[in-house]
Amino acid sequence: MNYFIKRVLEIIPVLFIISFIVFVLVFVAGDPVALLLPEDAPEEAVETLRTSLGLDDPFYVQYGRYVVNMLQGDFGDSFRYGQDAMSLVLERLPATLELAIASILVAIMIAIPLGIWSSTKKNSSIDLVATGAAVLGKAMPNFWLGIMLILLFSVTLDMLPVSGRGSFSHLILPAITLGTGIAAEMTRLIRSSMLETLSQDYIRTAKSKGLRTGIVVYKHAFRNTLVPVVTIIALQTSTLIGGTLITETVFAWPGIGQLLIQAVNTRDMAIVQACVMVIAFFVIVMNLIADLLYQVLDPRIRYK
Amino acid sequence: MNDILLEVKQLKTYFFTEDGIVPAVDDVSFNIHKGETVAIVGESGSGKSVTSLSIMRLIEEPGKIVGGEINFEGINLNKVPRMKMREIRGNRIAMVFQEPLTSLNPVFTVGNQLAESIKLHQKKSKKEAREIGIEMLRKVGIARPDKVYDQYPHALSGGMRQRVMIAMALSCSPKLLIADEPTTALDVTIQAQILRLMRDLIKELDTSILLITHDLGVVAEMADTVVVMYGGQVVEKADVFTLFKEPKHPYTKGLMDSSPKIHEWNEELVSIPGTVPSPFEFPIGCKFADRCPHVMNKCKEEIPSLIEIRKGQEVRCWLHSEKVVDLE
């Protein structure tokens, strides 16, 4: 429990450091005013806007103001939308989380049975097909797979919606698009760690007790491969929350990825800050969950 | 001691590797009577572990039992369906392995692993299995068995873990216990304790033991009958007293000479020259020919057969088969 409190408190300085890095990067990236006004805007107008936005203050004043506001939960207003940046990001967050979780579930549902199966039938035709499928899944670019899925299921077969977010059916194609790539990687990982586990002495012990193959494989072997599996699930979920821009674009999915890229292009500093903070927060939380799960999954792991 | 519990008859287990066929066990026969302890002795690579795994039908690819019979209580284990074999494994025949540190699953409690076979073979509820399990832990000399029952293997010492393994193996009162180097990985003081424990328990449960070892001290302590293996074949078979008093095969003699004896401290410890060759490099004739101090031309050309030179002692050696011929 102490460990848990310690880990939660650690989130605060990490977020602080991240906010500073992002602030510096956006600061050196250039002046947003140039993009906010037309090219032929008079010099005074540019100056007025810059002053009113506080952009002519020195770096430390701007950063100080930013920190003070941030601590009050205020990331400033978007230059572009004129709204509070954080609420814009939080508005998009459910869509991103929904897609991330659905994609991970797709990956898990493919990878766990396939990985275990190919490990127990090593070098058989099933294993070769699974390996081939994994290579293919990893090699296919998301934008291409997404477009092909739309062509087949939405245009030709007219079974699923082309794009947008709404009902469950909207979720299927983007989740499959993102899930297959992750499933490919996960299958390989599960296969190799299962192969290692299956050669352990305790598997021979389990067999010598007369247990059914299913119990030997799923109880005794698979439980021992869950630590790497949880690691990859946590890592991939973090990645999905941060960067699914291409898939979001292909399916017009209103997630954080699109918002962030637009904000970077228009130097919409407040949104970039808010997006990065939210993404960073989820990455940290996913890592924390994984670390806590390790203890549950492997009794030899104990943190002080 | 006349009732045969296990009869291994001309067992052949080959490994079909990419480099060729390895006859890891080649025409091995021996019997285990009820209540008897039979030891298989040999160096690494002699085929003793493969013999024990063959009896359990736990030979993994690319290995395969290619011939012979393994008759246990009147059933040929080599022929029984997998379902039936699972009912025998862990129940009628149980096994203790060499590595107590890695033979228990690290992510399940001792109790979970102990109760597994009790629930499976004795059809007990979880609660009953717990009671039986704790009782077994007490029997193998574990202090505070109810506490250890809920502990994970990593919290126990090697000796404790081997006791747990023995408790697990004996929990269904098997008729045959196969112990594959049960004390090799343990400290000397713990070894003696574990051996004593096994001896006491098998007497109580009327279990026979097939003991796989390379340690002649353990053999002298435990065994009634000894089977000496080399290169996948039985080279000598005798009761323990005869074997220690009058070893006939040069390999058996070599093994005896290379183990230290406490009362012959001034004698230099000898070793058998050379090492066990790789499976593909065994001589055509007697497999021991290259390392044998008494090697003759015949040894390099023809494999001697296992011949009974007196009641209860069999030897696979041209030296002794000549004598038999002479006598006739």
Summarize the structure in words.
- The complex is a heterodimer of chains A (304) and B (328).
- Chain A has 304 residues and is mostly helical.
- Chain A has helices spanning 2-29, 33-36, 43-52, 59-71, 85-120, 125-139, 142-156, 168-198, 201-208, 213-221, 226-242, 245-250, 256-265, 269-297.
- In chain A, 35% of the residues are buried.
- Chain B has helices spanning 48-55, 82-88, 110-122, 126-139, 145-149, 158-170, 188-205, 216-222, 240-245, 250-257, 297-301, 318-327, and strands spanning 4-17, 20-33, 37-41, 63-72, 75-76, 93-96, 176-180, 208-213, 225-230, 233-239, 307-310, 313-315.
- In chain B, helix 6 runs parallel beside helix 7.
- Chain B is built from twelve helices and twelve strands.
- With 328 residues, chain B is α/β, with parallel strands linked by helices.
- The radius of gyration of chain B is 21 Å and the shape is globular.
- The A-B interface holds A 200-202, 204-212, 220, 223-224, 297-300 and B 56, 58, 85-91, 94-95, 97, 99, 102-108, 113, 116-117, 120-121, 152, 154, 165, 168.
- Chain B: Keywords: ATP-binding, Cell membrane, Membrane, Nucleotide-binding, Transport.
- Chain B: Belongs to the ABC transporter superfamily.
- Chain B: It is found in: Cell membrane.
For CATH, the homologous superfamily of chain B is named as: P-loop containing nucleotide triphosphate hydrolases
CATH class of the largest domain in chain A: Mainly Alpha
Distance separating the two termini of chain A: 10 Å
β-sheet strand percentage of chain B: 15-25%
Strand order of the largest sheet of chain B: 6-7-8-3-9-10-12-11
CATH architecture of the largest domain in chain A: Orthogonal Bundle
H and E order of chain A: HHHHHHHHHHHHHH
Estimate percent helicity of chain B: 25-40%
Report the sheet with the most strands of chain A, covering strand number, pairing sense and barrel closure.
Answer: none
| Total E-strand runs of chain B | 12
SS summary, helix count of chain A: 14
Number of helical segments with 4 or more residues of chain B: 12
Task: Name the poorly predicted regions of chain B.
Answer: 324-328
Shape of chain A: flat
Shape field of chain B: globular
Number of structurally distinct domains of chain A: 2
Q: Give the proportion of residues in helices of chain A.
A: over 70%
Regarding quaternary structure, what we see is: heterodimer
